[in-house]
Amino acid sequence: MKKITAASVMILSLIFSFQTSASADLFDFVGTWSGDYCTMNSGEGLHCGRSAEIVIAEQKNNLVRGYIKIGGKEYPLSGIISSGNRIDYTDSLGTIGVLGLTEEKNMQMKALNRCLAGREQCAHSGIFKRKK
Q1: In sequence order, what E strands does 1-132 have?
Q2: What is the dihedral of CA 27, 32, 37, 43, to 10 degrees?
Q3: What is the per-residue pLDDT across 32-44, written as a single tens digit (0 to 9) for each?
Q4: Interval 26-70: pLDDT, tens
Q5: How many angstroms separate the CA atoms of 53 and 103, rounded?
Q6: CA nearest neighbour of 50 among 64, 61, 40
């Protein structure tokens, strides 16, 4: 019985230390990020210079939640931080996207969703800077 207890304590210690060290290496994404993005679709082509804000309101372990604000409307998002400090996210528009850090510590968005006006798919890409 003592061996089982000792083994259990050791395993739990290893799991806890792994989670702690993995969490310690994560970039702190919490804050408001503003910038412009481009949208491309097959019907209308490329449109750039659209403004948006990405707000990461909460980050716990490797999970984030917040919203994307476009044209005064907020669209909730949630995601998982993976290796390389990359957030794989989804939002209330059905977007599947990635938020990653550039060398300058700006946030780069790459995403795919159904266009707001129409039924075709839209691709999005943009750079966002953290507001101070």
Answers
A1: 31-41, 45-60, 63-70, 73-82, 86-91, 96-101, 107-114, 121-130
A2: 110
A3: 999 999 999 888 8
A4: 899 999 999 999 999 888 889 999 999 999 999 998 999 999 999
A5: 20
A6: 40
